[in-house]
User: What shape does this take?
Amino acid sequence: MANGVKRVGILTGGGDCPGLNAAIRAVVKAGIGIYNLEIYGIETGFEGLIKKYARPLNLEEVRGIVNKGGTILGATRRHDPFHYQERAGEEIKTMDRSGDILQHASELGLDALVVLGGDGTLRITERLSQMGLPLVAIPKTIDNDLSGTDVAIGFNTAVITAMEALDKLHSTAESHHRVMVVEVMGNKAGWIGLESGIAGGADVILIPEIPFSIEKACEKITGRTKLGRPFSIVVVSEGAKALGREETYIDPKRYRLGGIGQQIAAEIEKCAGLETRVLVLGHLQRGGSPTSFDRVLASRFAIHALRLIAQGNFGKMVALRNAEVQAIPIETAIASLKTVDPNDDLASTAEALGISLGR
Ligand code: F6P
Assistant: This one.
């Protein structure tokens, strides 16, 4: 590169999602082919920089991975260098290893770093950028809750996975005259729930942004029964909560959401008088082959990230805004979680279609 950048590292942090490999592939292909760079793959997020687990990535390594889910670099949630936990005998010690990140990046000869991450990883990334690490970020999260970008890598695939599950559940719900409750991921945001529910013809969609009344949800279900349709599909986001109640955690100590599907199923069975079954889609939404949308988005983001490095425009996250790829400060992306506006077009579209949002 004209600005002297010769070696670029790339890592994937936090939870995985479909489309990460497409981005890695694009960085390697264009990095080598256009910019004559050496690309180093850092393993398991920032942990790879703490432990110096890195390897050169050549074209051979990225051949045939555009359609593969997961990440060839590995990912972990336990990679925060500012609160890095290490076992010392019986004890687990928490240390600040951020200094090691900068030192090891320099020892590995990295002139710049590409970080693929969601909210948690980008908070770490922003702090490292402030400390002087030259980097650019690419947004990835099935939750789609990063501000400043219309969409992040992985979201589209997750929505389609959830939608396909809803498509398949319709027939069995109808045959058995049952209510099928489908619990989807999304953390504190209802994007997956709302979009998959609209696309998959759900009757009720419950999301974190709209505390729900179970009575309202039941009204919709019993209304259908009166019309001769004694079956319903209910989509509930893992972070949804009933009016006056808190979120449901499967593991409160580790803030792992889950269990709301089971909870409302019992209530629906009672108030709607229909047999009710639950499906928790879980990590299915994070797996599988990325959609064409995610492959193209990942490729566009990766190429733009390289452009930013060539310009020396560090500390930025690439973003999709009104169909255009742009660069925004990482701090804008993490300033607040992007959640569904209960009064915006998406929510009102659902209600105009007769879907109950439990309000
Ligand atoms: O952020 C992505 C996500 O899949 C959330 O939707 C979900 O709450 C969480 O990660 C699950 O995390 P883990 O894979 O660590 O259980």
Remarks:
- The pocket of 6-O-phosphono-beta-D-fructofuranose is lined by residues 15, 77, 118, 141-143, 185-187, 238, 256-257, 286 (CB under 6 Å).
- The radius of gyration is 22 Å.
- The mean pLDDT is 97.
